[in-house]
Amino acid sequence: MSSTEPTPRPDPFEGMHIADADFLMDVEGRRSCTLCGKSRKFFCYTCYVPVGEIASRVPRITLPVKIDVIKHRNEIDGKSTAVHAAILAPDDVKIYTYPNIPDYREETGVVLIFPTPTALTVASLFSGERYQMKENYGLPKGYHMGTLLRFRLNDIVDAPLQSDGAASTTADKDGEDFPVKRAVFIDSTWSQCRGIYKDERLSSLRTVVIQNRISQFWRHQRNSPRWFLATVEAIHQFVLEVHISAWGLDSRYRGLDHIHLNMEQIPKERIVQPDEASPDQVKPYNGQYDNVLFFFRHMYNLIHKYYDHEKLKAYKRPLY
After folding, report:
1. Whole-structure pTM value
2. Residues 220, 15, 299: CA angle, nearest 5 degrees
3. What's the whole-number mean pLDDT along residues 114-136?
4. What Rg value do the Cα atoms of the chain yield, rounded?
5. What is the rounded distance in angstroms from the CA atom of residue 125 to the CA atom of residue 208?
6. Dihedral through CA 19, CA 85, CA 66, CA 75, nearest 10?
C-alpha cells in the first residue's frame, strides 16, 4: 500500500518582505534582560527590548505614523503581540496600561482604531470621502456595537457620500495637512475594550476602521471569525493602508495575495507600475513595514512545527 504525502500548507506570509528569522531557532536557554534583569527567551515583554546575542540581528523599522497601544491591566504582557511592534519599531510604538494613558484631546491628527457609527476607512481619511453606514449596521434591534466586529466592512456600508473636502491628499507625512499623525489601538477583550472606549480621552477621538483580512493568530478566540486580527496584525494592516493611500502600492508586491484582502478596495490609480514611480517621492508600498510581523511569523512557524494546522481551533473559525 502506497502512502501519499500531505498537501503542503500554503505560507500565508509568502510575498511579504520579512527578514529571515531562522537564527531564532538556534537560541538555547534564556538570557537576562539588560534593563530589568529578568530571564527572557527572545525579548523582554516588559521592557520591549530583544535580549542576548540576537539583539543586533533583530530588524528595526520606521513606521509612517506613531502608534499607541492602550492595554487593559488584566491583559498578560507575555501574550500580547503588541509587544512585537514595540520592539521592532521602538521609536514609533508605545504601550500604555489603562488608565495611565495620554490625554489626546488637545493633540491634532490622532485617530482611534475602533468601530463606531461615524468611523472612517483609512482611504477616506486621505480622500475626504465619507460613508453612510446602514441603520444599526443592518442588524436586528437589540444588537450592540460589538456585533459590528462580526461583519465585513462591505456588508455594513450603505452608500458612499460625497467628499466633504476636509481631508487632504498630500503625501508629506511631516506636513500639517497629513490626515493622521498618531493611531491608537485598544489591546483587550471586546467587553474590556468597550469600557476603555468610554473614557473621554479616547471617545472624543475620530474613529477609523481597517479593511478585513484573514488572521493567522494561533490563539483561539471563541465566537469570532478569522478576520479578528491579533494586535500586531492590525497595526501592520493599518500602516499598510496608510502608505497605499498616501503613496500607492507597488504593482510587484505580492504580500497581499494570501491574506484574503479585498483588492477591489484598492483603487486602480493607487497601484503604481515600476516605471511610474518618481525617484524624488516616497516609494509605493513594497513591504516596507512587513518586518513588524518578524516575531509573529516566527511564532506562527514554531506553533506549526509542533501542531497540525488543521487541528488548531483558531484556524477552524469561519472566514466571515
Report:
1. 0.84
2. 35
3. 78
4. 20
5. 8
6. 170
**Burial (CB count within 10 angstroms: exposed 0-12, middle 13-18, buried 19+), residue 221:** middle
3-state SS class at 229: coil
pLDDT, average across residues 163-176: 53
The residues facing 20 across adjacent strands are none
Cα angle 80, 84, 88 (rounded to 5 degrees) comes to 160
Torsion angle of C-alpha atoms 253, 207, 149, 139, degrees rounded to 10: -130
Q: Do residues 285 and 250 touch, judged by C-beta distance below 8 A?
A: yes
Residues 296 and 148: their CA atoms lie apart, in Å, by: 26
SS3 label, residue 69 = strand
Please report, as a single letter, which amino acid is at residue 210.
I
Q: What's the pLDDT score for residue 153?
A: 53
Cβ count within 10 A of residue 60: 12
Asked if the model's pLDDT at residue 205 lies above 60, the reply is: yes
SS3 of 294, please?
A: helix
Per-residue pLDDT of 259-293, as tens digits, reads 888 788 888 999 999 888 788 789 999 999 999 99
Q: Is 49 helix (H, G, I), strand (E, B) or coil?
A: strand
Query: Which three-class secondary structure string do you get for 82-130?
Result: HHHHHHHCCCCEEEEECCCCCCHHHCCCEEEECCCCCCEEHHHHHHCCE
